[in-house]
Amino acid sequence: MAQKRVLVIDDSNTIRRSAEIFLKQGGHEVMLAEDGFDALAKVNDAQPDLIFCDILMPRLDGYQTCAIIKRNEKFSSTPIVMLSSKDGVFDKARGRMVGSQDYLTKPFTKDQLLQAVEQFGSSS
Predict the structure, then answer these.
(1) pTM score, whole prediction
(2) Are 102 and 73 within 8 A, CB to CB?
(3) What separation in angstroms does the CA of 63 have from each of 26, 57, 66?
(4) Domain assignment of residue 14, given as a range
(5) pLDDT: is 2 or 29 the higher one?
(6) Buried-state track 63-100, b at ≥16 Cβ within 10 A, e below 16
(7) Percent of the chain residues past pLDDT 70, beyond the cut
(8) Mean pLDDT value across the chain
(9) Which CATH number goes with the domain that contains 50?
(10) Rounded Cα distance, 63 and 112, in Å
(11) What residues are paired with 6 via a beta bridge?
(12) What is the 3-state secondary structure (H, E, C) of the chain?
């Protein structure tokens, strides 16, 4: 599998670190953002192939962050996978409405994370 540039947006340092370790073990380039504003500042420079975005974050939540990124023509086709500690049907539906491709429930495994990269990161 080719190396992908992956942006992980999560306000939890633990989640960011574990995602970074798993993705790097999978041979991917990883950029981290601690909230929606941080992500919006970095996404242009990072040019990620795939974005993992936490839903519950301060200031700008994952839905808002996803919607803003998707509104930018440059990133409208960039896959976004939402991360949440809740496994609710409503959350999944709302994620789809703002343009996310999929949904991972935290805590995720290394396999789940790498499988999502393989599944969605191949469009570039």
Answers:
(1) 0.94
(2) no
(3) 27, 10, 5
(4) 5-123
(5) 29
(6) bebbbbbbeeeebeebbbbbbbeeeeeebbebbeebbb
(7) 97
(8) 93
(9) 3.40.50.2300
(10) 21
(11) 30, 50
(12) CCCCEEEEECCCHHHHHHHHHHHHHCCCEEEEECCHHHHHHHHHHHCCCEEEEECCCCCCCHHHHHHHHHHCHHHCCCCEEEEECCCCHHHHHHHHHCCCCEEEECCCCHHHHHHHHHHHHHHC
Amino acid type, 22: F
Which two structure tokens, joined as six digits, stand for 87? 């496994």
Q: What's the token pair of residue 113? A: 């994370």
Tokens of 30: 């990883």
What's the rounded mean pLDDT across residues 57-73? 96
Domain count for the chain: 1
Q: Which two tokens mark 15?
A: 């989640």
Cα 119 to chain centroid distance, Å, stands at: 13
